[in-house]
Structures are given as C-alpha cells and as structure tokens.
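Quick start: load a record and inspect it. Here is Acyl dehydratase:
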Amino acid sequence: MTTHIANPADLLDLTGQTLGTTAWYELGQDQVNLFADATGDHQWIHTDPERAARGPFTGTIAHGYLTLSLAPRVLADVLTIDNVQAALNYGLNRVRFPAPVPVGAKLRATVTVTSAQHKPAGVEVVFGLIYEVDGTERPACIADVVVLYR
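Running the structure step on this input writes:
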C-alpha cells in the first residue's frame, strides 16, 4: 500500500497514522558484503559464512546499520509526495536493533507518521519504522527517522 499526497504539509494531517507496510525484501550475502566494504565493518558474523555457521546465530547476519539504511527505500515504497523539492535525511531520534536479520531472510517495514511540524526550512516529519523478519516475533529494528521536506 502506498500513501499518495500532494504536498509535504499534508503529512501534518497524517500524524499518528500508519502509512503502510512494504513488500518483503531479501537481504543477500552480496548486499551484506557490499555494505561491509562501504563501511569497513568486516566483522565475521556478517561476512564469513563458514565461521558464522558455528557462531551464535548459526549463519551470517546483516549489519544493523544496513537494515536501518533501507529507510529511504522503505519510505519511497509507502509514501509518494507530488510537490516536493527535496527530502533531506535530517537525523534519527531513536534506534534499536532488538533481533538479528539472518542473511537470506525476508524483511519488511511498517511506517507510521509519529509527528510532523512546520519549520522555517520546511516540514519536519518523524517517521516510526518497525522492521520485521518473516517468521520471527521480535522486530529487527525500531527507528524514529527524521526527514525534512522542502
């Protein structure tokens, strides 16, 4: 489901509402390895399938920050705004990684408008994102993502 609005200011009326849930994404080992190369985080639990098979998660897991970095994709999947000049990543208010994301698992996110307010630079929106892994009870990531729309 995608929420379609005309202007960023329309988000003020959507405070407290769920915008939608994405389709399932599969995080593969190639994507995890590329993220490791980009960030320099080559910890074996992410990049060494043989060693990770004997580790605490019985296989490699995605970086928590890789999961979080899907936020722009997640937002684009559930929200379309017609008249926006720019959508700027403005920050994070809260991030937690309660459960791992096994490589090869299916992941999706649900997005809620936590708050929205006019600012001199545009409309500042806090989106609540909850990432879940198919077949597990605990969320993989809970984040309050702040976006400034101009």
